[in-house]
Amino acid sequence: MEHPSLVPALLLADSLSGDPAGGEARPGGPVRRSVRDWLVDGVLFVVAVLFGLLVVAEAWSRPDPPTDGLLFLDLVVGSLGCVALWGRRRWPVGVALLLALIGTFSDMAGAAVLITLFTVAVHRPWRTVALVAALNAAAAGVYVFLRPDPDLPVPVVGALLVVLTAAVVAWGMFVRARRQLVHSLRERAVRAEEEQRLRVDQARQLERTRIAREMHDVLAHRLSLLSMHAGALEFRPDAPPAEVARAAGVVRASARQALEDLREVVGVLRDTAETGAERPQPTLSDVPALIEENRRAGLRVRAEYRVADLASAPASVGRTAYRVVQEGLTNARKHAPGAVATVTVTGGPGDGVTVCVANPAGLGQEPDVALPGAGTGLVGLLERVGLAGGHLEHGWTADSDFRLRVWLPWAADGAAA
Known about the structure:
Blueprint lengths: L6 H10 L18 H26 L7 H16 L8 H11 L7 H14 L2 H21 L7 H82 L5 H23 L23 H10 L3 E7 L8 H21 L4 E9 L3 E9 L16 H11 L3 E6 L4 E8 L9
Parallel strand pairs: 1-2
Antiparallel strand pairs: 2-3, 3-5, 4-5
């Protein structure tokens, strides 16, 4: 039966156990052992045999050793019990009950009894564990009666074996709870990644919906104006040449503006909850005011403008550039409190507009109020810039600065490219 000197065997069983976390072996089901499983089972088998032989040798060397017949039976049946360890993954309860029966008289099977009891505690419900543990405790009582220790009183030996059984069960159930916790945390991490992916998809869809709303409102006006002047030309072919030229100029300008509005699909319609009215759309010339507003809010910003005339930028370019600066300064305020942000706006007709917002890591300060965020701001910004025909880069530079850099097209004739 169990012996206090077999505790190291159980330690090894815990450290090398390769069973799935919190999983339960299917009785009679097929078992596919990995290389690690074969290694673990082999090591546990060798440990059980070696500890059994040591305990049998210790009993045989006593002044009043057991009879030769009992020792022979112990070696044979106990060795078969150790061999039964190879089936603990497929039939954990059955192997545990068999070894509990063998443990009523065998020292050779002592380590194997502890290993199978530990396996049941890890992979079976508490009611099954309690039943197997009770049978092991009863087997311990029979063992003490059949093979009393000459150096210790029978009650002491029995109490030690019961305590050892309870410790093995408690340890196995602790390992089970720990593995289930790890498994649960892993599932939570997978769910969190999936939820983040869904939020990103929703942000993209929301941005596209807003784009479609603005295109409907803006292009409907442009195209209706174009249709009106084209109709006038169609129904008044005898109009004076000056009037025809003027109408043709309006048609050309309206068509060009409609094309520009079609290309500026990243503009977002901002409706108020109360009136549903459209807010004035920002332009590139509004960027200095945005920076001053952030400065008044406590953000330290260095700004540099290398554009000849900010107000001359096309509306679509200015609006997108404004949103880039707005998002970059918002991220700097949220993630790098106390740092100095740098905003650079360069370019012109034919070269396009380049907007760069950079900031170092925070200076260890914490904002007074945590700013909420879903982590989808850059996703929407990337959607805006890409649909406008530009490109966006963001990430950490070699100087440990976080940089948001956007290039937007600006045609040489002043229209959006």
